Amino acid sequence: MRLGAQLTFLAFWSQQVAAVTYIQKSQYCVSACSTALQHVSFGGQMPAMMAPAVPCTSQLYIDSLFYCAATYCTEKQVDSGLSYSNETCKSEAGQALPSYTAFKANQYPMSIARVQRISQKEAKTKTDEPVLPDRGLFDLGYASTSATNKSDYFNWTFTWALYGYWGLVIVVGMVNRIVQFGRHRRSPQPDLIRGKVIERQSGSTIARAHRAVRRSLLMPLAFGNRDGKTPKWAAIPSRTEALLVATYVVMNIVFMFPGYDLVEGNLNSPEKRMQLGHYVCNRAGTLALANIPIIWVFAARNDPLLWLTGWSYATYSQFHRWSARIATLLAIVHASGYSILDTWQGRYLTAWTVEFWYCGAIAVVSMSVLVGSSIYMVRKRWYDVFLVLHISFAVVLLVALWFHLKIHNGAYNGYIWPAVAIWALDRLLRISRVAYFSLIPSIKGVQATAEWDESKDLVRLDVTDFFKNTKTTPGGFYYVYEPGRIRGYESHPFTLCSWNYPNPTSTKGSETSSMEEKREDYDANLRAEFKDVELGVDKVITNETIPDTRGSNDARHTFLIRPKDGFTQRLRHKHSKQFHVLLEGPYGLELYMHQYAAVVMIVGGSGITAAVSRTYSLLRKTAPPYVRLVWVAQKQATVDDVCANELSGVLGNSRFKMDVFLTSDETKGVPLNDVPYGLHSGRPNVDVILDEERDKCAGSMAVFCCGPPGLDASVRNSVVRLLREDGPHVAFLEERFSW
Fold first, then answer.
1. Largest CB tally within 10 Å, which of 36, 326, 441, 524?
2. Residue 449: what pLDDT?
């Protein structure tokens, strides 16, 4: 009894398989004959709808198909339709159909008059001889075929529309990247005139239009208060990102509705509610699958599109998460819809005994877990948990989808294999990066030392034996692995804060010096490097003043990390211990800030890591801009430590100004110490700071931000306000991590 139920269930799905790939209209006629004959039992065999091999192996069925085609179809329709049927038989049954030409020349003229005609009421007849559908049954078969293929045609067309949309978005991004790159390459070093940098500004129509687009679309966040307050439960995208995502979501939803024809007495599914249910479920499943390659494209760290478009990984992460969310929603519609349909037909429980059904359920559950575990609060609080779930369930999803789609004989594999290829290539490139930069210098990985001071709430991770022949980009970030742990496969992204190449005259014994001695050497090198820098009219720093000691084995690269939970918390317990790490990178794109007359960097907390290296890079230029650094921090001890180390080489520089805002309640009412930077209590008034710098700026100004969402929103809002006013050109640049 159970076997019979399974056969009935598989018979229903074999009917769906036949319509996976839509056919051309020239093939409708022969397909209509097949549809009209699919319920007939020939010679005691099961009907074709229950046994897909029957149309290829039963001579009675084949003769009936040929009679129908010869009666109702033109020669062109017969050639096209039988060609499709022949290819299907080779795939399904491993054999070709007999010659239709021989049948038409010999058998058809002599026997057509004696062939039994069957009507719609006799469509489920049992016979031991060939039959010919009458005109009414053939027309119903044609209408049923047309309706099914119309729906399938829309399914496949809409998947290409989704790819076309992202293709257009990426092309626009690439064009913009090329334009910006050319602009940066053409821009000479700013001219120094009486100590000021002058930029020739354009008031052309194109420039005004670009300014309007920036302040209306590119700059603002999708939503949030003007005072910078953003919800803590989500990472708010920019307005442009939100519009792109919203358009894509709407496309997926709208694509669920067109292209359905309901046929009274449809031979594939007589009830109209069943017809509509099948069409909607198939559409949802196809669109969900179409999103799979898109999800993987936007998830890859080594995606060349990141460089080609110049977009940040955070932007791609927004696209990745939203395409995954809409795909999951569509998959739930697909699964829920078919559950309802099978419940109506009394075979829901039987469905769970069939491989493709329960594998489909596993796929839907996997997608739901992936989406649920990737919400902002989970990523923020339990990143390690998120990482493990994401990797494991992504693998489960692809495997489950493959088994779910096996019944379709590879028709849908074109959605799965690109995702597998992208995943494999990305992993290969990650491993290659790690091997080249970490394992080649030392099979155990590069050496690292962590310093931790509870009063400063800061872990300083110094890495040596690394980057010997590698150009280090300001603001670049790396994924850090600790291979000595059980969970050594986990990686966490950190921005490289600073790097130092010791004096080449250092003795070999310095390699074993303490961290304190190395830090003193580091400070001395930086101070010596900038001791003669006025950076005004008379003197500028040149590249010759920078010691070229890249061959030293003691090259030290510093990551500043604020410990939270998981991996960063464990670094606290490695205080003053040497251990080995693997680094994957560098990632990130260069921000062209050197062409601006003034650069205002507003950072919060550990965002200082993105500002330090960029500050040194800017002040090393032949005609350096004026740099103002605004750091919002909790503890003064943290600020003093960074100023005594990483920032010691620029404090007191005439082209550099630094302000610190302490937000911890412990600092309220406490006298502010005499320090070489502006020290304030509370949060900064970003509007006041930017107005002050804009009024002083004689040329263009860049505003850089790296910090929590609230600070980012405040800075964005202030820059948008400046773009509405007359004044120098203002650019907004940011460093966002959205893991």
1. 36
2. 86
Please tell me the predicted confidence (pLDDT) of residue 467. Answer: 58
Alpha carbon 389 to its chain centroid, in Å, reads 17
Contacts of 139 (CB under 8 A, 6+ apart): none
Are the C-beta atoms of 53 and 180 separated by less than 8 Å? no
pLDDT digits (tens, 9 = 90+) for 564-586: 777 777 777 776 678 888 888 88
Geometric angle at alpha carbon 345, from 142 and 122, rounded to 5°: 40
CB 519 within 8 A of CB 621: no
pLDDT given for residue 522 in this prediction: 41
Q: What is residue 475's predicted lDDT score, i.e. its pLDDT? A: 86
Residue 482's SS3 state is coil
Nearest to 39 by CA among 127, 100, 116, 98: 127
Q: Return the CATH fold of 598-734.
A: Rossmann fold (3.40.50)
Q: Supply the pLDDT for residue 525.
A: 46
- What whole-number distance in Å separates Cα of residue 605 and Cα of residue 570? 20
Residue 127: what pLDDT? 94
Per the document, the length of the chain is: 739
Evaluate the CA torsion angle 365, 368, 372, 375 in order and state its sign: positive
Cis peptide before 547 (omega within 30 of 0): no
Which residues are within 8 A (CB) of 431 and not within 5 positions of it... i.e. 6 or more apart? none
Return the closest-CA partner of residue 86 out of 115, 111, 72, 65. Answer: 65
Q: In this structure, are strands 701-706 and 598-604 parallel, antiparallel, or unpaired?
A: parallel
Name the segment(s) of the chain with CATH classification 3.40.50.80: 598-734
With CA atoms as reference, report the closest residue to 701 among 601, 610, 621: 601
pLDDT of residue 216: 77
Who contacts 682 (Cβ-Cβ below 8 Å, separation ≥6)? Answer: 661, 662, 663
Ramachandran area for residue 376 (φ above 0: left; ψ -120 to 50: alpha; else beta) = alpha
| 100 in Cβ contact with 62 (< 8 Å) | no
- Burial-class residue 305 by CB neighbours within 10 Å (0-12, 13-18, 19+): middle
> Which of 297, 376, 217 is closest to 737 using CA atoms?
376
Nearest CA among 648, 617, 613, 608 for reference residue 525: 648
Contact at 8 Å (CB) between 334 and 356?
A: no
Half-sphere exposure of 448 (CA within 13 A, CB side): 27
**What is the pTM assigned to this prediction?**
0.83
Picking from 415, 587, 416, the residue whose alpha carbon sits closest to that of residue 492 is 587
pLDDT given for residue 487 in this prediction? 76
Residue 630 C-beta-side C-alpha neighbours within 13 Å: 27
Q: How far apart are CA 601 and CA 734, in angstroms?
A: 9
pLDDT value, residue 314: 87
Could you say which residues of the chain have pLDDT below 50? 1-20, 188-201, 502-553
